[in-house]
Design brief:
heterodimer, A: about 180 residues, alpha/beta, 4-stranded mixed beta sheet, 5 helices, B: about 450 residues, 5-stranded parallel beta sheet, 18 helices, 16 strands, about 15% strand
Chain lengths: ~180, ~450
């Protein structure tokens, strides 16, 4: 089935124009048109009061079942703290070679770590996270190339070390998958 | 390329299994899940997994019980125990039962990555270890031991039968017959093969040097002892010590050696701390040690302690059928080490080598081949490439009658044909001696 587009759906508040700042790079990396839209979900259904976090796995399932289509790659974008049962937090996650993924801007903000707000760094991190999770939906696994956007990042400074582009090997793999 | 690591997740909570599954496949691991221990054990009966990540609290069999069962199936399996309720007791128990690590849910993404990276490193080490073990095992045949002759086959049989034991062995044989190779073969085929074989050439060291070499010394024990030094017995712990030219050690060293062999402990020169070491002793000599014992040159008690098993390596002249094989072997060895194409040997040179006596045994033959390859034309070993060699005297295969005739002639000549004295020396009566002289047609020398 031929892929038509990538959909970026934001849930909740995002800074004005933030999504637009990443669209071009996403289009460039995956060579597909990107559409952005606002989505609506009752996030309280995904909230765990004991952890005071949102269940990323349930959200991913929800995005996949209610928002995704076979002809699209759909990424749900959130501004809440995500977790999965086994981990204290996640930046995002996606179905490998699937049609949906999620990413959150919550832990990408400098302010969360007691550092001064930096809009430029936030956009950079967000761009990388969006491309990274979409990469998984295209079947790409974590890459060992330190500059590749598909390199695994387990803490926020890790994200700053890599570029927002796919390395040559991941691009080759992407061509095979698409 | 590194092989794909496989992970089995065992947890009764679906959300945990699913989230871990998703997390790991993004890392490129091969992942399978089981909802309880029973299912996990069934999977493990048929499939191998590199890492097993198991919850401790599960209905039915718990994670700790499963860990024990997995370890009984595969002792080097890497099992990581997860729990939501960490207690020191369960953590200690899990580690005691062989868990690789113990983690409390939920954990940081970074910790999970570290955990799996560490486990992967452990897997690589185990694999590397297996590869190295295989390499060592492939060395067991100890390359330089070549021979199809019955005499060498007997040596191989003896090596095989003593290798598995811890018995001391004396390897006897002429110089150059390959006694050290026999020692190496015994060590390489023994359960101690993964530990060092330490060789000491006793004949090359003075008494005081040998003492320091064998037992080690403490800093300041003598002039020049600026550091503490481990002795060879200490270095051979869990392995084998090979004492070459054992017959050359002094009476004082014989006493000390006997004590060490009996107690498996010793004190470094200049030290006062008793050091224990678990070693096996192999020794070699080209002398008649039993004869030395009879003459009082070697301690009888030490001889019997060392001589639990004796392997005698035959001289080359007693295994001439191995000569072509050895020639071929050494040609390949030296051509390869000198980066030269394999040379052949001209029939005349081969014939000369086959009939030579080799007083220096295999070492001499080996040197001869090496020299011939160095000085030769690079294509063929010619007669002129060989050093001047004296042929081995051919066995005469005389009959008993011939030997008797020779002996009687010698005795008669010795006693100037005095029949009475000669008959007495030969323990014959005079009539019998006359009959023998007549029978053999013996005559006095002119």
């Amino acid at each position: 089935m031929k892929l038509e587009k990538i959909k970026l759906i934001s849930f909740g508040y995002f800074e004005k124009g933030l999504l637009d700042k990443v669209v071009n790079d996403v289009e460039h990396e995956f060579q597909l048109p990107v559409k952005t839209k606002e989505g609506h979900l009752d996030l309280s259904l995904f909230y765990d009061p004991a952890r005071r976090q949102y269940d990323g796995f349930k959200l991913l399932k929800e995005i996949d079942s209610s928002f995704a289509k076979e002809t699209n790659k759909t990424l749900g974008l959130f501004n809440v703290d995500l977790y999965i049962p086994i981990l204290t937090y996640i930046f995002g996650q996606a179905y490998l070679n699937g049609r949906a993924g999620i990413a959150s801007i919550y832990r990408l903000r400098n302010e969360r770590y007691g550092i001064f707000k930096d809009e430029k760094i936030l956009v950079e991190r967000f761009r990388k996270e969006v491309i990274h999770e979409l990469g998984h939906t295209f079947g790409l696994i974590h890459c060992y190339d330190p500059s590749c956007v598909m390199r695994s990042s387990t803490y926020v400074e890790d994200i700053d070390q890599k570029e927002h582009q796919l390395c040559r090997h991941c691009k080759e793999k992407l061509a095979i998958h698409t | 390329m590194a092989k794909k690591i496989s992970i089995l997740i065992v947890d009764d909570e679906e959300s945990v299994r699913d989230s871990l599954y998703n997390w790991f496949i993004e890392d490129g691991y091969y992942v399978e899940c089981a909802e309880n221990a029973k299912k996990a054990l069934t999977i493990l009966q048929s499939d191998n997994f590199d890492i097993i990540l198991a919850d401790i609290k599960m209905p039915g069999m718990d994670g700790l019980e499963m860990l024990k069962r997995i370890k009984s199936l595969k002792s080097d399996a890497i099992v990581i125990i997860m729990t939501a309720f960490a207690t020191v007791d369960t953590a200690v128990q899990a580690l005691k039962d062989g868990a690789f690590d113990y983690v409390t849910k939920p954990f940081d993404p970074d910790d999970l990555s570290h955990l799996i990276r560490n486990a992967s490193k452990q897997i690589s080490l185990i694999e590397e270890n297996e590869i190295l073990k295989d390499k060592v095992i492939s060395l067991e045949n100890v390359e330089d031991m070549v021979g199809h002759s019955e005499a060498m086959q007997e040596v191989f049989r003896q090596i095989e039968s003593v290798a598995q034991s811890t018995a001391s062995v004396i390897i006897t044989g002429e110089s150059g017959t390959g006694k050290e190779l026999v020692a190496k073969a015994i060590h390489a085929n023994s359960p101690r093969k993964f530990f060092p074989m330490v060789s000491v050439h006793c004949g090359a060291l003075t008494e005081s040097l040998l003492e320091s070499e064998l037992f080690g010394h403490e800093k300041g024990a003598f002039t020049g002892a600026v550091y503490n030094r481990k002795g060879r017995f200490e270095m051979a712990d869990s392995g084998t010590i090979f004492l070459d030219e054992i017959a050359t050690i002094s009476p004082k060293m014989q006493v000390e050696l006997l004590r060490v062999l009996e107690t498996k402990s010793f004190v470094r020169v200049g030290g006062n701390k008793e050091i224990s070491s678990d070693f096996r002793v192999l020794c070699a000599t080209n002398r008649d040690l039993k004869g030395m014992v009879e003459k009082g040159l070697f301690r009888e008690d030490l001889f019997y302690r060392l001589n639990v098993v004796n392997i005698n390596v035959p001289p080359l002249r007693e295994r001439v059928e191995d000569i072509p094989l050895l020639i071929d072997y050494f040609i390949k060895k030296y051509c390869s080490s000198m980066n030269r194409p394999i040379v052949s040997i001209e029939p005349a040179a081969l014939q000369r080598m086959e009939t030579y006596a080799y007083p220096g045994n295999i070492r001499e033959l080996e040197n001869m081949i090496e020299r011939a390859i160095v000085v030769g034309n690079g294509k063929k070993i010619m007669l002129r490439d060989l050093p001047l060699m004296k042929e081995r005297s051919q066995p005469t295969f005389e009959s008993l009658d011939d030997l008797g005739k020779k002996h009687i002639q010698q005795i008669l000549n010795k006693y100037s044909w005095n029949i009475t004295v000669s008959a007495k020396a030969l323990k014959l009566d005079r009539v019998t001696l006359y009959n023998k002289i007549k029978k053999y047609g013996l005559t006095p020398p002119k």
